[in-house]
Amino acid sequence: MNLLHIALREIKIGFRNPWAYSFMALFALFSLSLLLINAQRFVQGYSSTTSSMLNLILYLLPLMTLLLGSFSLTAEKEEGSWQLLSTYPLSTFSFIVGKYVGLTAVLITIVTFGYGLTGVVGSLTGRGLDSRTFGMFLAFSFGLILLFLSIALVIGTIAKNRWQALTLGVAIWFFAIIGWPTLLIALLGLLPYVWIKPVLVALTFLNPAELVRLFVVIKLGGGAALGPEYYQWVGWISKPSGSGLFLLVCALWVTAAIGWANLVWERGRSRG
Fold first, then answer.
1. Residue 151: pLDDT band by 50, 70, 90 thresholds?
2. Cβ count near 160 (within 10 Å)
3. Which of 21, 85, 219, 228 has its CA 20 to 30 A from that of 30?
4. Which residue pairs from 159-164 have beta carbons closer than 8 angstroms and sit at least 24 positions apart in sequence?
């Protein structure tokens, strides 16, 4: 049994899970609601309408990813599946990465279905997004899935059951999405002025939601709305190499999270 088998097994389990179809229906309904926001005009680039759409996606998708991802790992512990899998010549790394690949496929299918339905309805009604903006929305959603799923694996690794995973997942979602602006303002207000920009950069790299949001907003042409503290971000993301650097940062983020989850899971495995 190898990484591919684990990934395929996870895809099968994922699409048998009622949670997956519940989230698919919810995201499809949510995606269609974006058309109501866009009911009065054809949206292109960054605007108040686009900003509202991005914020709505930011509220739903990370929470959905954290719950599905962390529950998948804790279910292995609660149902005894891991005890069976550990008897096979299966490395912990293959197990973790296989889970990640399989869950990514399930979540991207959910999101693609929702956006696909929105795209069809938008084309029929003439109230859809232009192709570039629509593509950036897809990139925004996929980026959130990839980064928050790596966090979900860490949660599922340290949580002993679904209740702990639920508590940790909601807490991380709250601080990263809902409480982030307030916490950021409170912390930066305590620092000397010369420290604000370096600390802001460091904190932004630590919050995947903010990292992906800044990238998409700047690519949509909304860099001027971010404020002077983000002028350097606008500069490097707007360069031709900006997308490549962003993908590299995301890859490092995912690698670090999966590596840490693998280390902790392997220690637990060695202790029985």
1. very high
2. 10
3. 219
4. 159/70, 159/73, 159/74, 160/74, 160/77, 161/74, 161/77, 161/78, 162/71, 162/74, 162/75, 162/78, 164/74
What's the per-residue H, E or C state across the chain? Answer: CCHHHHHHHHHHHHHHCHHHHHHHHHHHHHHHHHHHHCCCCCECCCCHHHHHHHHHHHHHHHHHHHHHHHHHHHHHHHCCHHHHHCCCCCCHHHHHHHHHHHHHHHHHHHHHHHHHHHHHHHHHHCCCECHHHHHHHHHHHHHHHHHHHHHHHHHHHHCCCHHHHHHHHHHHHHHHHHCHHHHHHHHHCCCCHHHHHHHHHHHHHHCHHHHHHHHHHHHCCCHHHHCHHHHHHHHHHHCCCHHHHHHHHHHHHHHHHHHHHHHHHHHHHHCC
Rounded Cα distance between 7 and 94, Å, is 9
Intra-chain end-to-end CA distance of the chain, in Å:
20
Residue 114 is predicted with a pLDDT of 81
| pLDDT tens-digit series, residues 21-53 | 888 888 778 777 766 666 555 555 566 667 777
Residue 66 has pLDDT above 60, yes or no: yes
Condensed to tens digits (0 to 9), the pLDDT of residues 116-136 reads 887 777 777 666 667 777 788
Look at residues 129, 124, 172 and name the one whose alpha carbon lies nearest to residue 148: 172
Residue 74 structure tokens: 């804790």
> What tokens appear for 99 in the block?
């889970």
Report the amino acid identity of residue 37. Answer: I
Domain ranges across the chain:
3-270
pLDDT of 269 reads 63
Q: How many residues does the chain have?
A: 272
